[in-house]
Amino acid sequence: GFARDLNELLVLSALRDEKKHGYQIALDIEEESRGLVKFRHGTLYPILHRLESEGSVRGSWSRGGGRRRKVYGLTAAGRRRLSGGTTRVEDVVARLLAVLRNPGEAKA
Q: Checking phi first, is residue 64 left (phi over 0); if not, alpha (psi -120 to 50) or beta?
């Protein structure tokens, strides 16, 4: 559904400029959304695994501070998905705002 797609797009957008590990992705989304969106461990990692299995992100293991971490980066397919998904979100939000402002006119 739309909420799932939106969460996936938020994760993809967090990886737009650089590779990150899961905890950093969650922190960045929370900061960028000014606390509006908070990912719990149990929510974020299934999203990352789904995005990885479909080829939108690529995970690789790195050693940082003596422990292994999986770091995720955006693929070309992920960039295309982010671009197309952003357009879709804009369309959905515009339609929702039309309904909220003028319920009867939204059907026109």
A: beta
Question: Can you name the residues that pair with 74 across neighbouring β-strands?
Answer: 57
Which tokens belong to 30? 């929370």
Q: What is the per-residue pLDDT across 2-39, written as a single tens digit (0 to 9) for each?
A: 888 999 999 999 999 999 999 999 999 999 999 999 99
Q: Residue 74 burial (CB < 10 Å; 0-12/13-18/19+)?
A: buried
The beta strand positions in the chain, using DSSP E, are: 20-21, 57-64, 67-74
3's tokens: 């909420």
Cβ partners under 8 Å of residue 106, min gap 6: 95, 98, 99
The pairs formed by 87-91 with CB atoms below 8 angstroms and a separation of 24 or more are 88/5, 89/5, 89/6, 89/9
d(CA 13, CA 8): 9
This prediction has a pTM of: 0.85
